[in-house]
Write a structure and sequence with these properties.
This protein is of the alpha/beta class. The chain has a domain of 166 residues: NADP-dependent oxidoreductase domain (TIM Barrel, Alpha-Beta Barrel). The protein contains 11 helices and 8 strands. Strands 1-2-3-4-5-6-7-8 form an 8-stranded parallel beta barrel, surrounded by 4 helices. Strand 6, helix 6 and strand 7 form a beta-alpha-beta unit. Helix 1 crosses helix 2 and helix 3 packs parallel to helix 4. The protein is globular, with a radius of gyration of 19 Å. The two termini are 32 Å apart.
Length: 309
């Protein structure tokens, strides 16, 4: 798996929130980002059936059909509704239906990595993992993963797979950043012990770690804080702004962007396989790319983390 994965969460909307469909990147803008990523060697794109109300998979499918990128790796997810009136969850029938719809929209015979987007308390985990194993055996998906999960859930996935003879989950995709380090405490160590890959999403904490949000200033137009602020209001504290300012100075001293340094911090943590980045423009992509070559030491990671609450 590549160290950097291009995220399609902003294509046609903002994540899986159906109330802001149309607020993200247009098809033309998404094509420009995908072109730039492919040209710079990023050969994996992560999406979900629900991103942008389905627009993300549509844009990726059309881009793939036009560009015909040889060796492209695709990752997608299932759980949330894709349009108003759609159902949700991880019941066997729904998982199979959504996978087939995604295959058609993406224009592929197989999705390389397929993940559950979050746990479904209404559906037995055995049922969901069984459905995914069926799809893998049929060749419709490759590896299986889970997202937005805690350590106990991962352990249960491993137990069920071993007991029932299913292929084990190949990766966990959780939020992880200097502002959201909780997964470091249990999930990362568990992934290391059980040889499960770990993919970090939102390494920039919704753009906060770029330093674009400042005390007393208006939020940039079209930013997450103007479109979907609820997940990030917890950062509206003086100590967070102070930590981000200090982090920005550290990036400047190293001659890199805060985005590159924040992603490098994530990639330098033990157990992290890759990071999903969501640049909205080719310029933002260029600012993030140096992250791969930074290779921070354990001491540097600790020093960068220290100012953060």
């Amino acid at each position: 798996m590549p160290r950097l994965i291009l995220g399609g969460g902003n294509f046609g909307g903002v994540g899986s929130d159906l109330s802001v469909v149309g607020s993200g990147e247009s098809e033309e803008q998404a094509f420009a980002v995908m072109d730039a990523a492919w040209e710079r060697g990023i050969d994996c794109i992560d999406t979900a059936s629900s991103y942008g109300g389905g627009a993300s998979e549509r844009f990726i499918g059309r881009w793939r059909a036009e560009r015909r990128p040889e060796g492209l790796i695709l990752s997608s997810k299932v759980f949330h509704p894709r349009f108003e009136g759609d159902d949700r969850g991880l019941a066997r029938g729904r998982v199979r239906r959504v996978v087939r719809d995604s295959l058609e929209v993406l224009g592929v015979d197989r999705i390389d990595l397929y993940l559950t987007h979050e746990p479904d308390p209404r559906t037995p985990l055995e049922e969901t993992l069984g459905a995914l194993d069926e799809l893998r055996a049929e060749g419709l998906i490759g590896a299986v993963g889970v997202s937005n999960v805690e350590a106990d859930y991962v352990l249960e996935c491993l137990r069920i797979a071993d007991e029932r003879g299913y292929a084990r989950i190949a990766c966990v995709q959780n939020e992880y950043s200097l502002l959201a380090p909780d997964t470091d405490r249990e999930v990362l160590g568990l992934c290391i012990r059980h040889d499960v890959g770990f993919v970090a999403f939102s390494p920039l904490a919704g753009g906060w770690l770029t330093g674009k949000y400042r005390t007393g200033e208006s939020y940039p137009e079209g930013s997450r804080m103007t479109l979907r602020p609820d997940p990030y209001t917890q950062y509206l504290r003086p100590e967070v702004f102070a930590a981000i300012a200090a982090f920005g100075r550290s990036a400047e001293e190293r001659g890199v962007s805060p985005a590159a340094l924040a992603i490098a911090w994530v990639l330098s943590r033990p157990g992290v396989t890759a990071a999903v980045i969501g640049p909205r423009t080719p310029k933002q992509l260029e600012e993030a790319l140096p992250a791969v070559g930074l290779g921070l030491t354990t001491r540097e990671c600790a020093e960068l983390r220290e100012p953060f609450p």
